[in-house]
């Protein structure tokens, strides 16, 4: 990587186009000056042209020399790139007989269009859908719900208000959707009102904030009594520093752009969940996870090719691919006996001693007798004995 960085800094310092471009400016000036002199004194045309030819040739030579430097830089940089990242053709490593998304083009198109819509790029999404439909009019799977655009537009309108420091629209929306948000145990409305209170305290003073709090806080008393106490008393401790400095650093206002961004992200998450959509774009998540996994898969694939072994299961990867915590959406249980990940068909079962194994492993361990349900087995992880019927399925 160091060699690459060295080449890059060389490219930036020496081989950039600033020299050639100022040289071209010089040449243009030369031509314009000559034109002006000829226009002012037509009788000197011959002399001026001779002078111009001499000067221009010199400048063009210099320009060629400068450009050569740029080409040289680009060449050695691309050589360094090739050396560092050896290209592997996907055809060499992929199992071309198995195309997982080939039959699902409609769904992929829909995912692309949905991604564009949720990014607020409505026009691009519409053009994309139009072109898809022109090619394949019968495909019903790629339709985007018609009211989606309006819903996303409202979301972006509110997010723009939050970015301007105005929370009122967001609070109104949360209030309109109070029941559904409460069903999800969402803190959205409270967080918005709390942030507004603290922002008023910071900009207009504690007294003004108290007026607002008196009006708003009673509806949150049941759920957030302790937090209300903190929020109301927090500003009393403030002297010269900002309100969030002490004594409760977790209390947020919307003074900084970062805080506004956090609040916007929280709002979008809740908004999308009420629309039945995930917080982040599935296309973005899938593509990012794929990009993280690809180098490892390429390596596995080439090792398997060398050893002439085959990838036996299409639904399971032969290696573990760790993803960042933000990509973990639910817990998984891997059976400690069979080392397989539990599924709906093969769910995790808890034995009376508290140890958990997969259902199939449990069946294998208890199947030794004639009547499976009455045979006792020893837990594979502790000395306790139990019957198959004592085990209980666990839900995560
Ligand atoms: Zn046990």
Q: What do you see in this structure?
A:
- The protein is mainly alpha-helical.
- Helices cover 58% and strands 4% of the residues.
- The strands form two sheets. It has a three-stranded antiparallel beta sheet.
- The radius of gyration is 34 Å and the shape is extended.
- The structure holds zinc ion (ZN).
- The site of zinc ion has 7 residues, from loops.
- Zinc ion binds next to loops.
- It is found in: Cytoplasm.
Which characteristics define this entry?
CTLH/CRA, extended, single chain, mainly alpha, 396 residues, zinc ion binding, 5 strands, binds zinc ion, 5 domains, two-stranded antiparallel ribbon, 15 helices, three-stranded antiparallel beta sheet
Shape: extended
**Rg calculated over all Cα atoms:** 34 Å
Low-confidence stretches: none
Largest sheet: 3 strands, antiparallel
Strand % is under 5%
Order the strands across the largest sheet as they lie in space: 2-1-5
Distance between the termini: 43 Å
What is the average of the pLDDT values?
82
Into which percent range does the helicity of residues fall? 55-70%
Task: List the helices and strands in order.
Answer: HHHHHHHHHHHHHHEEHEEE
Secondary-structure map:
Blueprint: H1 2-13, H2 18-40, H3 45-84, H4 90-93, H5 105-118, H6 122-135, H7 148-163, H8 168-176, H9 178-183, H10 188-204, H11 206-216, H12 221-233, H13 257-274, H14 282-307, E1 348-350, E2 356-358, H15 359-366, E3 376-378, E4 385-387, E5 392-393
Antiparallel strand pairs: 1-2, 1-5, 3-4
Helix pairs in contact: 1-3, 2-3, 5-6, 7-13, 8-10, 10-11
Zinc ion (ZN) binds at residues 351, 353, 355, 379, 381-382, 384.
